[in-house]
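Two proteins were folded this term; both appear here.
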Amino acid sequence: MEGKVTAEQHQISTEQIGGLGQSTGTLPPNRTIRLNLDLVTGFRANTSAIERRVQTLVTRRTVKKEWQAAWLLRAITCMDLTTLSGDDTRERIRRLCAKAKQPIRQDLVERLSIGPLGLRVGAVCVYHAFVETAVEALQGTNIPVAAVSAGFPAGLSPFAERVAEIHRSLEVGASEIDVVITRAHVLGGEWQALYDEIATFKEACGQAHLKVILGTGDLMTLRNVGRASMVAMMAGADFIKTSTGKEPVNATLAVSLVMTRAIRTYAELTGVAVGFKPAGGVRTAKQALEWLFLIKEELGRPWLEPTLFRFGASGMLGDIERQLEHFITGRYSSSSRHPLA
C-alpha cells in the first residue's frame, strides 16, 4: 500500500535518539554574583541581523522520517507540561500528571520500540493552589513540580507577598519556582532594583530551581530583553524564560536568539550554564523543531537536556504525538485521538 511504513522503518536507533533522557554531564549550577553594570548596559542587539539569522532556522534546517521522530521525542523530554487556566481543577491536574507520566500512547511506544527509555516530560507546571495535588499524583516518578509564583502573571503584588508565595509553594513540595519580574524595572533601566528583586527570589528558593520569566512581550526592545537576561543570570537565575503566556506577544525565535546568546556570553565569562525556557505560543511539532535547532546551533549539545532546556507548553504535546503516529502509519489522525488532559 502506498505510504505504508514497515516495522523496521519506524523503529528508531540508539544513534538517532542520541542518549535520550541521559545526562551529558554535570555542569556548575548558577549562583548570585556581583552586578556588572558595564556588561549590562553594553549589551547590543542588531534587529535586522537577528531577523536574518532566525530566517535560516525556518528555511534551511529540516529533518525527516526517523530522525524527525527522534528529535520530537527529545522535545517531549524537555517539556514543562503546563496548565495555568482560571478554570483549572484538581481532576484536570491529575489527568495532566497522568499524561506527564505517559506522554504518548502505549501502542505508539511499542511500535517505536522505545519502551526501555521510560519517556517522561521535564516537569509539570501549575499554580500554587495545585502544587500539592500534582506532587501527590507524580509521587515515585521523579518528575518535578514547578509552581508559578511571585504574583504571576503581572508580578505587581506586594513584594513580601511574592516572596512568601515562593516559601508556601516549596513547603507543599514544589521543586522548581517560575517567578515573574517587575517589568517596570527594565523599562526604566533600574538594573540594581531588578537585580535585588531576583536575588531575593533566589535566596527564597534555597535548593529549588529558579526560573525567571522576563515577560519579553512587555519589554519593548530586543536590547532590553538581552539586558534583562544578563541581570537575571547575575542575580542567580537557573533558567531564564521568555513569557508568562499571558502577554500579547509571547515566545518568538528572535527573542529566543537574543536570550540564548546572552546565556552563551554568560557561560563564556563565568563557566556557568544557565537554562532557557521558551513559553507561550509554542503549539506545534514544527515549532518544537525550530527551537531545538536554535538551541543546538547557538548553545550546543549539552543544552539539549531537560536540565538546561524546557518548553513551556501544553497543546504542543498533542501535535507531537500526532506527528509520531503519522511517522508510524503514514496517515494523519484526528486531534481528538491525542487528548492532553
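Next, the second protein.
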Amino acid sequence: MSDCEIVLRLNAMGDILLTVPTLRAIASRGVEVHLVINDRWKDLAKLMPANVHLFSGTGSLIKLAARLKSLSPGAVFDLQGKLSTIALRNLINAPITRIYQKRSFTEQLMALRKKYPIRLFDQRPVWQKYAETCGVEVTNPDPSLVLTSEYLDQCRQVLHNTGLKEKKFIFVHPEASKPGKELPQKLLSAIQNASPLPTAVIGINRSALTINTPHLDLRNQFDLYHLPGILSLASAVVSSDSGPMHLARAVNTPLVAVFLQTCPSLGFAPVPGKNVHVISHSLPCKPCSLHGQNDKCPEGTFACRELDPVETGREIFTFLADFI
C-alpha cells in the first residue's frame, strides 16, 4: 500500500478547515497526506497540516491530475462530490476511492423544494463524517493550523498597526456569506455594551453597522493570509456561523459561535473544545435552509433572529469570563 493519500475538498473555507482533524489523523499513521483546495483559498495553504495543491479551474484539471497521479497515491478521498472532483478522482485512478455523502437524495430534494424544518437523518458533525470517509477514527479532534513564530511575528506587526494590544481585545464577526446567518445590529450593540474589553468588528464591510468608541471597525483591514494569526492574538472571538468562526477555532482562540437561521444539527458547528460555546435556540421552524440563504422568513417572523440581546450578551461573557 502506498504511503500517500489525497483528500479533495475545494470549497468553502469552513469546510476546508473542518478537514484538519482528519488530515492530522491520517498523518499520525505515518501517511503523507495531500490536500487539494480551490486557489481562492491559497493563502491558507502554508498553514494547513498537509501538502496542499491548488485547483484553479477546469483549465488546470489535466495538469493537476497528472501531478497527483505521479504521487502514486494509495487512496483518494473526495469530500466535495462536484464535477471537478469527480473528474480529478477518475483521472488519478487510485486503488482506493471513497466519496463523502453529504445528504440522502430525499434530504437534498427536501432542501431544494424549501421544505422546512430540515431534519437530517445523520446529525453527526461534518468533521466526524470526513474522518469516517477517510478511514480514520478521531476521538480527540485537533483542528489547529500550523502557525510558525515567524508568521506570528508578522501578524503582531499587522495588529500593532491597528492600535490594538495583544490579548487585550475581543474580535466580533457579525457578517456572513448568507443573510440568515448575520448577527443583527441590536445584538452587536449588546455585545459591545457587555464586553469587559474593547471589541473590534472584522469582516468585509457588507453591512451597515453602528460601531461606537472605544470599539473599532476593522472590516476589510486584514487579508486572509494574516487573519488566522491575527485571530490568535485576540482574547476571544464572537462570531456568526461563518468561515472566520472556524478560523478562530483553528487557532484555539476562545470562541462563542451564534447560529441564527442555520443550526448545529446540520453538522457545521465548530470543532468542540473547552473554550468553545455555541448559541443556537431551538425553534419548530429551524433550520429553514441549509446555509442561511433565506433573506425572507417563510413564517413571516424571523424568530431565529430575535435573540434577547441583553440575555445573549450575558451568556456570551459569562462563558468567556474563564478565558479573558
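The chain has a mean pLDDT of 95. Residues 13 and 55 are 14 Å apart (CA to CA). These notes refer to the second protein only.
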